[in-house]
Each structure stands twice: as C-alpha cells, then as structure tokens.
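Hi there. Long-time user, first ticket. I'm pasting a complex I've been working with (about 346 residues overall). I'd like to know whether the download I got is complete or cut off, because the file seemed smaller than I expected. Thanks.
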Amino acid sequence: MIKVAVTGATGYAGGEVLRLLLAHPEVEIGALTAGSSAGSRFGEHQPHLLPLADRIVAETTADNLAGHDVVFLALPHGASGAVAAQLPDDVLVIDCGADHRLESSDDWAAYYGGDHAGTWPYGMPELITGSSRQRDALAGVRRIAVPGCNVTAVTLGLQPAVAAGIVESTDLVAVLANGFSGAGKALKTHLLASEGLGSASPYGVGGTHRHIPEIAQNLGRAGADEVTISFTPTLVPMARGILATATARLAPGVDADAARAVYEKAYGAEPFVHLLPEGQWPTTAATLGANVAHVQLAVDERAGRLVTVTAIDNLVKGTAGGAIQSMNLALGLPETTGLTTIGVAP
Ligand SMILES: NC(=O)C1=CN([C@@H]2O[C@H](COP(=O)(O)OP(=O)(O)OC[C@H]3O[C@@H](n4cnc5c(N)ncnc54)[C@H](OP(=O)(O)O)[C@@H]3O)[C@@H](O)[C@H]2O)C=CC1
Ligand SMILES: CC(=O)N[C@@H](CCC(=O)OP(=O)(O)O)C(=O)O
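Hi, the file is complete. Here it is re-exported in full:
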C-alpha cells in the first residue's frame, strides 16, 4: 500500500483529497496535519469522513510527515515552500496550493507577493503541450504543482482552440460563476450567509485575479505566442462548482463544424474531460463530486467568436481529483485509479 499524509487536512481541499483517497484501492492514510487545530479530534472538522473521525490532528512538522510515500500539501498560499523543503527528494509531494505553479518569479511577485518557492511539474494531465500532453511529463516525478481551480476550467475550455490556431489568443474573455468553497474555510466577511446568499458578486475584477498568469502560462504551453485574457470571476450562492464561459475571436473562415472537430479530436480520448453532445450545455450540478470537466462550444457568427462553457467541481476536478490523477501518473498507476466521473446531482 502507498502511505499518504495530508497537511491542511481540516480544510476544504485537504478534506476532499481525503474523501477521494478513502476510495483509492492502493492507498493507506497516514498522518493528518493542520495548523491551529492540531491536537483536536479530526471528526470535529470533517464529520463526513467517518473512517477518520477518531484520529487526532497532528502539527505540520517534518517529523510527523516522515515515513510516508506521498505527502499532499493543502495549505494557504505561501506556506507550502517551507514545508516541502523539509521533505526528502524521494517522497512524492503534491502541492494543492499555488506556490509551485508559476514559471515566472516576476509573475509570482506581481500576483502573490513575497519570495517565489520555485516551479514544479504541473499537474494537469490533459494540458496540450505541443504534440503531446502534460501526462507524459508526470511519470516518475516526485514533485507536482496542482493547478488553480479556475485555471483548470478556463484552460480546458480554451486550449483545443488555441492549440489548433482557430482563435486569436490575444483576444480572450472569461467570466466565471464560482461556489463559496473556492475561498476556503477561513472566515471572510463577504462569505457570510447574510452577504452571499441571494446575491451574485464579482471579485478579482479588472485583471487583478492571481489565476491570470497561470492561464496565460498554460495557453502558452498549448501553443499561443502571446496571450491576453480578460478574466472575471463571480461569487454565486452555491457551495461547490465553477461554470466558466470563455470566448475567443475566431480566425477567418472557421465555422461551427470545424471548431467542433477540433474539440472532438482534443478530448475524444480524455477520461476526465467530457465534450457534451451538441446543444447540451454544462451545469455545475452535473459535475458535483465527480472528477470530470463537462465542456461545450458554439460559434457566435455575428460576434465572430467561439463560445466555450466548462463546468467542474472546484474541489474535485479543480483540486483533489486532479491531484490524485497526477499522483497516479507519477506512481505508475493507471491514471483513473480511485476516481469517478459519476456525480451526485441534484
Ligand atoms: N478551495 C478550493 O476550491 C481550492 C483550494 N486550493 C488550494 O488549497 C489550499 C488550501 O485551501 P482550502 O482548503 O480552500 O483552505 P482552508 O482554509 O479550507 O484550509 C486551510 C488548511 O490549512 C491549514 N493551515 C492554515 N495555516 C497553516 C499553517 N501555518 N500550518 C499548517 N497548516 C495550516 C488549516 O488548518 P487549521 O484547521 O488548523 O486552521 C486548514 O487545514 C490553498 O492553497 C488553496 O489555494 C486549490 C484549488 C481549489
Ligand atoms: C470563490 C473563490 O474565492 N474562489 C477562489 C478559488 C481559488 C482557488 O481555490 O484556487 P487557488 O488554489 O489558486 O487558491 C478564487 O477565485 O480565488
């Protein structure tokens, strides 16, 4: 069995990693660590994870993380680098946070601030990288940076068109509806039920959201020379889910059939990206609890734009499921081990 520790186990991302790992046939769950909740009973924080309820949350120290084959980091931004530096090179370390996603230290400084911890192999197996996919780069690695959840939705929506050159990558627009859990468990005023229930509110407006450089990095790897994207997330009253509408100016002469053929070719063999039948549009409800992205596209002839819509569960395909998919690849297991595309709607 593969022995796995989870840091940030009391949070949303750590909890979801554990929920999925409990169904993984090759995994045994070891240390559960966190910050201020160390010493408390795990069941107080994650009552839905009954098999682990009587465990005691440990401090996040190198000693407590020793003796594991895999360590998941589900810590706030900026906290992963120091913990990872204490872990041996032969341990597979999977960072669900942002610390190791970006190649450019300038981008890190501009969007996150502080010192950049470094760049790790990027955990999005479906990412188009020239003539191959990122999954080929994950075999045998011992460090993985899990993508941002919004980044996963927007990248999967746009990358086939960008890679095939059927859109202008300098004229991209993405508007997203985002569930509350994306912001984590820590209390924030705008996430109070009295503020957020019955309301939709934009945040990170005007080119300020920290996922913009990561999306540009991905679409650059997919083949774009230059990427300009207007990106606007909107908080909507649902616990989980992201619905990303991403549009792009079409290259001359590209019609709906040609665009659809590009997406069918890109995603026909992907186990966790599902191109819906023509005319059926993604909903977040259909992806909840599932390691899957539902994708659809249309050509808006009057506007001259390709319109893509992608739905994911931010905590599954957007975090924990994607992380376990990458773990499987790194360890040489079948990519789909322990993961399901079956959701829990309604
Ligand atoms: N929520 C989401 O949809 C996604 C989250 N992520 C990333 O996952 C990471 C965790 O996010 P999320 O689960 O939402 O956040 P939460 O606020 O829900 O959880 C944070 C976790 O980190 C622990 N923690 C906080 N500070 C420290 C510290 N100094 N040392 C050790 N443990 C600490 C907390 O423990 P304690 O209980 O003791 O406070 C808690 O377990 C972030 O980097 C986030 O960006 C990535 C993709 C999507
Ligand atoms: C509603 C909400 O605030 N969502 C968060 C989701 C970010 C996320 O979880 O991704 P990271 O791992 O990069 O933090 C946001 O859009 O910033």
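A couple of notes from our side: The two ends are 35 Å apart (CA to CA). The first helix runs from residue 12 to 21.
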